[in-house]
Amino acid sequence: MGEQESGLSKLLLSPDANDIREWLHKNKSMVLKDKVMSESEAVRTFIHEGCYVATELYGSVRAPMSLCREIVRQGFKDLSLAGQGVMETEHLISGGCVKRIELTYQGWEVYGISNVLRRAAEGGQVTISEWSNASLAWRLKAAAMGIPFIPTRSMLGTDTFKYSGAKTIVCPFTGQKLVALPASPVDVGVIHVHRADQYGNCQIDGITGFAWELARASKRLIISCEEIIPTDEIRKYPDRTIIPWFLVDAVVHAPFGSYPGEMCYYYERDKQHIKDYIDQTETEEGAQAYLQKWVTGPKSHAEFLELVGAEKMDGLRKAVLGR
Amino acid sequence: MEYKSNELLICIASRQMEDGTSAFIGTGIPMLAAALAKRMHAPNLIPLFEFGGVGGTLEVLPLGVGDSKTFYKAFAALGICDLMETAQRGLVDYGFLGGAQIDMYGNLNSTVIGPQQKPKVRLPGSGGANDIGSSCWKTIAVMQHTARRFVPAVDFVTTAGYLTGPGAREAAGLAPNSGPYRVVSNLALMGYDEETKRMKLLATNPGVTVQQVVENTGFELIIPEKVGINEPPTDKELTLLRNEIDPGRLYI
Lengths: 323, 252
Fold this sequence. Notes:
The structure holds two protein chains of two kinds. Chain A is α/β, with parallel strands linked by helices.
């Protein structure tokens, strides 16, 4: 079994569970208060230079696109990022907001690799550590559990482990070798949901990705939602509350907040917009031109939606797959 | 019927899927292959998608592993931890993987060409691949077959195959009796030698010679005495693919 092995990458967050307990005890509470605010206020209040941001789900599916566009608009330059993304994280990279990424996947699936990540990584603008999808999610789970690490068999024996910040341990019961994944208590979690009430009780339709884990691992949590619903509706279906209010710091109303990505049962993705965007990102100039037109051009999500146009949104609503 | 190279790849991959088993499906060819298998020989194949889709019908082709089509009429819409833990517990039979490079032990690279800190080409990264390769019982890689992709040593081991050979997975701490099972390429179907854990040729695709496979493989491939020949796509397979599975020609 031999000695402990350590991944080469420096952790961006301390997994110390005592520190987190103290912080949460001091800063979070179960007091019910109206947390509805604009995306501009939410981002300005809870995101600061140097902090670690994680988004959920990803890219073209229930992604917090409107909040990511706002982060770019506010001109951040020195964020750390949990890298599980497609378009939303590309915007943060293209916008020059990100210096460090704990990466699992940044790509376009069917449409291929990410031009934006390629330029940033090959040009040395970002430092990257490697993780797997489950590892990033389990790191959040460890933070959610209030423990400093969680054991897994993922990443064993690979360079993904070598370039992570994990360590190997020997199981005290079986003597077997495992990977100890450090808890990831992120500074700010950013999640887009179908419905929330003014206090931050959230409902998600369809798959839940890693929303459960990220919500509980986040010191500050910004929620954007398609609809703000009355608390009576929440109380009628308490079994649907996947993120309860006391985890949430801000609720931002963002209809079509995942556009050009999809939101299951609400609207289909805009395939043409995504395709055109990827073509444009082949050059840095193209990527910047896109940001200017669609991200920093509009001053708010409302202005962004004007640019998209009601007709387009109607079409995507109608194109959605039913149940 | 005439067919294209990727249609053949989809059909051969589809035939590896077994009825009544579960399989992690990745974006692209595995999705089409699973959709085809469900309509052909494996109606009870349970497709799993890492962000939470379980047992969808694949009536409509997904564009990504979190797409709403991955859980259309599914048995369950769960989350990533739940599904990856299901695999870690030993309940997932197959995992489909891809990558930019593969070596003779089935180790896969989808992270970087060149050094990690000074990349020549930065690739997307592991995503769920490492987890699937660590935890599924059998993994099937789907690859384009060139000497630049079938390499003596991958630049970066994103996902564990048999690592450095017999016993290496277990020594690293991975579960016994798990690991690479098949490689489906546009030229051939490969498996692994039980003793040496090295990749071996099982069957060539129609019109492809053993010599061509060898020339396009950058490491020494085991060539057994008997090498099979894969059947070309049938009319039924092609008709399903073109008319039902991918009528919008997103992939084919």
